[in-house]
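INFO  loader      accepted 1 record
INFO  loader      residues=129
INFO  predictor   begin
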Amino acid sequence: MFPIEAISTIGGLVLPPVLDLIKKIFVKKEDDTPEQTISSLATTKPDVLPAYTEASAKLMEAKTQWFNRDVVGTVSPWVSDLRATIRPATVCLSMLFIGFQTLGTLPLDASTRAALLFIVASWFGGRLK
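INFO  predictor   done
INFO  writer      dumping tokens
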């Protein structure tokens, strides 16, 4: 069962950076950004610049209000802490189980070992971006 473990480990390491690269290649950035518009207005029609800046600020405020339309209050600190702890905890437990298996104190089947290796490798792969 070694090939499955190798595939899951290498896949976990390589997949996040490869997907990021594919996204950068196929998803093009916008050519018309607010910064480019301000630069163009500053050189061609500087008298319109204050109105454009004010309109941009109002648009951003409207987008922020729309984005936060369902937010009612703040999340409890313990919920926030729990959500922030889930991924590091699973990675640490996976490393611990793999270490115990390596020492021979915890027998693991191949599919469990492959899943644990994938968890650890995907965490490290996410750091390679």
